Amino acid sequence: MIYVNSNPKKMFWLTLFSCIALFWFDSALKVWGEERTKSEDKNAKENAFILNEILKKIEERYIGPGFRAEFEQQSTITAMEITDSASGKLFVKRPGKMRWEYVLPEAQIITSDSNDLWIYRPEDNQVLIGKAPSFFADGKGATFLSDVKNVRKEFIVTLEGSDKKGNSVIKLVPKKKSTQLTEIRLTISSHTDTIDQIVTKNEYSDETRIQISKYQFNQDLAEDLFVLKIPNGADVLQLDQ
Fold first, then answer.
1. Residue 91's Cα: distance from chain center in Å?
2. Which of 8, 90, 167, 188 has the fewest CB atoms within 10 Å distance of its CB?
3. pLDDT single digits (tens) 53-92
4. Domain region containing 94
């Protein structure tokens, strides 16, 4: 049986009430949406301001002629479930000069004068030679340390938040897509404005984690520190072969 309301006046007021309720709900939803958009815009502006301040501080921190530091490195190949650890000393001179002296697990030197690159393995008495721009392309090898202002030029930078110690964490995505480097995460000390950790990933989810400590800034490092003098009798190979 179908019930039919025979009271037209009652039906009118029910219909009117429904229309008013629907109008109110639609208006409230619209206002909520506008307020949410305003809140998101405000948060985006605040994050952009904070990020800009972080970048300004590290740019000022690394503006000197050069620095030296110590590092610990952990590299993981995900597919093979292999993790290797290494440590040594780092020397950087602006612009573009870097020298990584590995001490453990075995001695090795990777050095560049920004044009040429040398990789020396004393145990094998072997030297690999190549061109730095090719080897360090798209931000590989943490080359931005030799000119931190390149971070803004070469990467899309976003604020990730902070770690348990209150240090800022920012994410870098190369503007030029590369299979060898898809993202970099930097942990910035809240006390010293130094880059204390660098975590890089490639498209295979392989990860390299570098912890940097014992910074010594404003170092006037010798130019020949970044040019390898090839030892007598060393086996010399080209990296592009």
1. 20
2. 8
3. 999 999 999 999 999 999 999 999 988 889 999 999 999 9
4. 65-238
pTM of the model: 0.80
Given CA atoms 204, 137, 91, 103 in this order, what sign does their dihedral have?
positive
CATH of the domain at 179: 2.50.20.10
- Rounded to an integer, what distance in angstroms lies between the CA atom of residue 151 and that of residue 172? 8
Token digits of residue 35: 């307020």
Is 69 inside any structural domain?
Answer: yes
Question: Which of 182, 179, 157 minimizes the C-alpha distance to 170?
Answer: 157
Beta bridge partners of 202: none
Report the C-alpha gap between 174 and 139 in whole angstroms.
7
What are the respective helix, strand and coil percentages of the chain, to the nearest 5?
30, 40, 30
Phi (first) and psi of residue 39, to 5 degrees: -65, -40
The tens digit of pLDDT for each residue in 134-191 reads: 777 666 678 899 989 889 999 999 999 999 999 999 999 999 888 789 999 999 999 9
Residue (of 59, 216, 77) closest to 144 by Cα position: 59
